[in-house]
Design goal:
Elements lengths: L1 E5 L12 E7 L24 E12 L4 E5 L2 E3 L9 E10 L7 E16 L7 E20 L16 E13 L6 E5 L2 E6 L2 E6 L7 E4 L7 E14 L21 E11 L5 E12 L1 H4 L12 H6 L12 E2 L3 E3 L3
Parallel strand pairs: 1-18
Antiparallel strand pairs: 1-13, 2-14, 3-4, 3-5, 3-16, 6-7, 7-8, 8-9, 9-10, 9-11, 11-12, 12-17, 14-15, 15-16
Length: 327
Amino acid sequence: MSVWHTTGMRAATAAGLALTVAVTAMGTAHADEKDPSYDWGTVVDTKDGVQANAWVIGITGVGRILDARMFESASPGTPKAPREMEGGNELVNLAPGGIGLGKISALYSKALTNKLPVSKSGKRTIPAPGAVYANAGGASVDIGVPYVENPFGGTALSGIGVHVDAIDVHARSLPGRPVEFQGGAASGEISLFGHKLIEIPPIWAVNLGATIPGTGNDAAPIIAQTNEQITTDAKGVPTKGKNGSYAYDPRATSGYVNAIHASVLGPNVADVTIGHAAVIRDPAKTDLFKDKQPKVPSLLDLVTASSHFLPKDPRVTFEGSAEITTN
């Protein structure tokens, strides 16, 4: 039986709800240690206390071959992401390092500091000292680890596959306020070797996922979740509770959101993010600008002007038996 639910902890990586799937006999699960700010993105030292990073697809691992962020934007710019906006309307075949990962169309990413967008989809901005904003998405995303297209059409034959339409995530932090996140999609599905496991609805709760029991003693798990929202400190390191483990901090001014985050464990570790938006704002350097901000809509209003949003009562459809719970 498969169970959708919401929770406060992401097993093995950060926070939220986990989808665990037995894939194949791949040996003992393991993962390489990484910098604690790695999941946020590329963190740099800034004098003004603000920075943003966004990408459409990110993947590491796959036999230690890949470490790539595709269609990445950053502010301030970095050698691998020199621009604050990326995008295009064409269909793109993803094959970093010669490994096919899938297809994406009408992609975009945006990373802004000390200014804010006038609208969700436009390129116009307005000055906003101390503010930071990031956004990423695409009209259609079809990803597999690795990607195996179905010659007869329909669901891809990838070991683990994700298909999402009209995906869109946002992160914003304004002086004097905590960080805000929004995200969602028109529709989506998670599949395993061509079999659709989960149909993702257009309403995505925060840190939404499912647990699917695996079979076999040597099965390597996949941990995945949708609308993963993580608060961090001003160095991009996830916030912690009294016990030293990750804890969401409602007062945090920095953090990131992933539309989908999937980690494949075992000897061939892979970590995939689809739709990533991250912001850092140091209140010690930026809260002095809280009375100098332009009038802007709430992040929810900015997003819902032309897309889906996230109520607190998700409805999820499973193929086969399923139990829906919320914690």
